[in-house]
Amino acid sequence: MVILGIETSCDETGAAIISGKSKNQKVKLISNVVSSSLSIHSKTGGIIPETAAREQVKYIIPVLESALKEASGSKMANDKWKMENLAIDAIAVTVGPGLIGSLLVGVETARTLSYIWNKPIIPVNHLMGHIYANFIREISNYPRFPAIALVVSGGHTDLVLMKNHGRIKWLGGTRDDAAGEAFDKIGRLLNLPYPGGPSIEKAARKGIPKRFKFPRPLIDSPDFDFSFSGLKTAVYRETLTSPAGRQGYKDIKILSKQTIADLSTSVQEAIIDVLVVKTLRAAKKYKVKSILLGGGVAANQKLRDELKWRMENEKMETKLFVPTKSLCTDNAAMIAAAAFYNYKEVPWQKITANPELYFY
Ligand code: KG4
Ligand code: ZN
Predict the structure, then answer these.
(1) Residue 155 CB less than 6 A away from ligand 1
(2) Of 196, 250, 252, 265, which alpha carbon lies 20 to 30 A from 16's?
């Protein structure tokens, strides 16, 4: 089965083609094209939803064409590639969660292609897509169930128990900011380029560990919830010359490069510490065979290394799966993969975007 995936939930425009044979095997990546409007958002320090959607309207057709051309092989002349030659069986599209204007670009495109090509549509939850990025890789074994999945992105931080494909139990999530959102907001406080996650990771490499002691919110609570907004406040305090609110004014310090690096190290450690401790606790409680990481924050090398190191240190038999970095951030390959393992067609008339979609 060959599936064309379309992803436009946030600021990326993605199209990809995968092929799969059996639910007990990984899927093969045939082509994967992502266009990001990041450079525009880095000027504004964050995503402006309308700008993101307008860019996606511009890029969706060229991105789709590139993905189809890439799949049809470089030998074909530019104007000779044909959709029919690719034998696409179905179209998978992200229906939520995400920004409504952005989601609509993908959903309406999928609807049109479904009608024209007479192919079914499979609606995909973006968060499930992040988990299914782990079912694409060529290098590691196929994940075994039960599994714990940690989805850490710009909008979400969730721990879920996966008993099998389509059998998901949500264990907990963030009560306020998502991990990626915390990175982005703190990056902004430190005057680092948007998005904050990769910028903080880079700055942290030169930081002195433990110069700042930041809280590890909810680390000892028995639930699987997270809270990262307090961390942002703690960093904010370090950027002020006097405690916020006192004497009715706040002065922002000029932070040295070294202080920014030190703050980055400490805040990255605090976020990772909570994520790792809670993920391992869930893995032990449910005696899982695999841990699956997913979402933009999963591209963080320190998080990947720390989780691996602690699992080895505790001699856990559970296997860790982490997608290649380009499949951690938003892409359409993961959407097509999620559709393959959770195949549920809907007629084009019935497909709708749902910005509030969640795991439950
Ligand atoms: O999954 P994603 O591409 O989009 C959403 O679904 O939200 O995740 C984007 C988030 C941003 O908050 C970004 O700062 C974060 O992932 N991110 C990282 C890294 N790369 C991206 N966070 C920490 N370290 C990174 N290397
Ligand atoms: Zn995402």
Answers:
(1) yes
(2) 196
